[in-house]
Amino acid sequence: MAPGGLEWLWIPLTIWAGFAQTLRNAAQRHLIADLGTLGATLVRFLYGLPFAAAWLVIVLLIRGDSIPQPNLGFLAWVTEGALAQIAATALLLRVMAERNFTLGVAYSKTELVQVAVFALVFLGDEISLLAAIAVMLATIGVLFLSPADKERPLAGFIRGWTSRTALLGLASGTGFALAAVGYRGAALEVDAPSFLVAAAFTLFWAQAIQTVALGGWLLVRQPGIVGTLLQVWRPSIFAGFMGAAASVGWFTAMAIEPVAHVRTLGLVELFFAYLLSRRIFLESLSRSEVVGIALLSLGLVVIILGG
C-alpha cells in the first residue's frame, strides 16, 4: 500500500516499534504487582487510546483527508485482531509472572512461524524461501536467548513443550500471530487514501475495541482494579504512550509489508532489551546467548536484504 519509492519505510518503522515496545514492556511489567495481569493489560489500551486518537487526527490533518468509513470486512478483521491481542498480552504477562518464565517467552516467539502460516492461509501473503529461512534462523536464535536449559537450549525447548508455562507461551504466540494477521487484514480492507491513514484508522479502532471490551469486563468482574488503575496514572500514561507509539510503528509497517517480514524484523526489540540489561547490570554474555544473538542477527539481515 506504500507509494512507489517508500516500500523500504517498513524497516525503520519496525525498528522504532521494537524500541518503543521494549520500554512499554518494562513499564507494564512493573504495574502487574498493583493491577494484576488483566489490569496491567488494560493499561496499554486505556491509556494508549488518547494517543492513538491524536495520531489519527494528526495524519488526517497533515494529509487533508477525511476519515474513512468502516465496512463489515474491516470491522471483522480489526475486532479479531483486537480480541486476539488482549488474550495474547494477558497470557504473556501471565508467563512473565511465572517463576519459569523464560521457557514461556521462548515458546511465545513461535509467533514468527505461526504468523507466516496464518498470513498465507487467511491473507494469501506468500513467503519466499529466503524469508522462511530468516524466520527459522530468528526463531532458533530466540530459543538460545531464552533457554529452559542453558547447556542444551534446543533440547530443553523440545523436552518441555507440555509444561504449563510452555503451553501458555505457545498460546500467547498464537494470539499475537492472529492479531498481526487481523490488523493487516483490516488495513488492507479499509477504503483509505493512503497506508498512513489506513494504519492510523485501524490502530484507533483496535484500541477502542480493546478498551471497551477489557475495561467493561473488569468493571463488572473486578471494579476495584479499575479504581486502582486510575490511581496509578503516572506510570500508566508512560506505558500507554509507549504502547501507542509502538503500535503506530507496527500497524504502519504491516500496512506496507507482509506480517511475517515485519514480525521477524521486530525481534530487534530483543537487542534493545539486552542492551538495557547489559548496560545496567554489566553482565557478560553466555555462550548460548552469543549463539542466539548471532543467529537472530543473521535472520534479521536476511529479512531486510531479501525477505
Provide a descriptive summary of the structure in words.
The protein is mainly α and 307 residues long. It is globular. It has one domain (12-305). 81% of the residues lie in helices and 0% in strands. The protein has helices spanning 10-30, 32-46, 49-63, 72-97, 101-108, 111-123, 129-145, 153-159, 164-189, 195-221, 223-231, 233-256, 259-265, 268-281, 287-305. The chain is built from 15 helices and no strands.
> Biggest sheet: strands, sense, closure?
none
Dominant shape: globular
Number of strands: 0
Runs in which pLDDT lies below 50 for 5 or more consecutive residues are none
What's the end-to-end separation, in Å? 17 Å
Quaternary state of this entry equals single chain
Number of helices: 15
In total, how many domains does the architecture comprise?
Answer: 1
Structural class: mainly alpha
Average pLDDT, rounded to a whole number, is: 81
> How would you spell out the order of helices and strands?
HHHHHHHHHHHHHHH
Helix content: over 70%
Radius of gyration of CA atoms, rounded to a whole number: 19 Å
Strand content: under 5%
Describe the secondary structure blueprint for this structure.
Layout: H1 10-30, H2 32-46, H3 49-63, H4 72-97, H5 101-108, H6 111-123, H7 129-145, H8 153-159, H9 164-189, H10 195-221, H11 223-231, H12 233-256, H13 259-265, H14 268-281, H15 287-305
Helix pairs in contact: 1-2, 1-12, 1-14, 2-4, 2-10, 2-11, 2-12, 3-10, 3-12, 4-5, 4-9, 4-10, 5-9, 6-9, 6-13, 7-15, 9-10, 10-11, 10-12
